[in-house]
Amino acid sequence: METRKMEKTGIEASLLGFGCMRFPVTPEGKIDEPEAEKMLDQAIAAGVNYIDTAYPYHDGASEPFVGKVLKKYDRKSFYLATKMPPWAVENLEDAKKVFASQLERLQTDYIDARVIIGLS
Q1: Pairing of strands 18-19, 50-52
Q2: Which of 5, 81, 99, 113 could make an SS bond with 12 (beta carbons 3.0 to 4.6 A apart)?
Q3: What is the pTM of this model?
Q4: Is 96 exposed, middle or buried (0-12, 13-18, 19+ CB in 10 A)?
């Protein structure tokens, strides 16, 4: 996998990232966990080290699922990005609560990148 080093941060990220917005789903519309886990595992095995999810993806199921799958990998071996929903944040305290929830849902101590999802 080809990577690029970001000189200012020292991060060396894969040019290809893995987005978790469109995992395969079951007929009931839930994440097809065995298939989605296989996809994440294959991406990581191929050298992808940038994983991107968001609070609302898959009706809120993406972050917990991604956190569960990534627990089997050394946390320092990948960069994790997520997005914060602006409709859940009216002030700094709300943002802190949502962020704490995201850390818990992702089963991690830190997130490498987070952004606020804008409404279009």
Answers
A1: parallel
A2: 5
A3: 0.86
A4: exposed
